[in-house]
Known about the structure:
The protein is an alpha/beta fold. Helices cover 50% and strands 13% of the residues. The chain has one domain (4-180): P-loop containing nucleotide triphosphate hydrolases (Rossmann fold, 3-Layer(aba) Sandwich). The chain has helices spanning 15-30, 55-68, 80-91, 98-107, 120-133, 144-160, 177-188, and strands at 4-8, 41-44, 74-77, 109-115, 165-169. Strand 2 (41-44), helix 2 (55-68) and strand 3 form a beta-alpha-beta unit. Helix 2 (55-68) packs parallel to helix 4 (98-107), helix 3 (80-91) crosses helix 6 and helix 5 crosses helix 6.
Amino acid sequence: MAPLLIVEGAELVGKSYAISQIYARLEGAFHESPHRLDGCHWFNCDIGLFGGPYGRLSIEHYLAMAEAITDRPIIFEKFHLSDIVYHLLYEKRKIRYTDIEERLLARGARLIHCMTNPDPELFRARLEDRVRLYPHYRRIAKEPSFYVKQLEIYREIIAESKLPRLTVDTSKLPNTAIGDKMYEWIQHT
C-alpha cells in the first residue's frame, strides 16, 4: 500500500515547504503518466472548512478517497487534528475523531508534525510573506503571539494521536535536509 501522510502544524510553520520536499520524491517514485503528475496526490484540505460546520464532512470524504486510492501516495496538508485545534481555538470545545483515527490507522496513515521556533519575529516575517503572496489572508491574519499559542495547542493535540509520527523542525527555510529526514522515515515505518 502506498503511503498516506498527514502533515500538521500551526499556521505559518512551513507545512507547504516541507510537503514540497517530500512530494517530488514520492511523485517521481510512483509516476506513470507522460501527461500528468500522477505519482502522488497532494491535497490542501483546510480551504476554509476546518473549525466550521463542514470540517467532519470534508474529512470523511477525503478519507474515503484515501481508502480507495491505495496505489499512489497521498499527502493531506492539515486534516482531522487541525479541525480539533480550530474548534478549541474558536469555539472553546474539544471534538473527537476516534473513528477517523481508527480508519487512518487501518489505511497505514503516518503523521508529520511541522514544528518551528516559537519566536514571534519568525512568525511576523512569515506572516508578511504570506500576506504579500496571498493578500486575502490579511482578513484572517493574527498577531504573532496567536501563532505561537497555536504551536503549543498543536503539540498537545498531536501528542494524543495514535498515528505514527515524525516531528520536523521548520524554523529555518529553505532546508532540504528535512526532505531526506522525512523520506528515510517513510521508508522505515
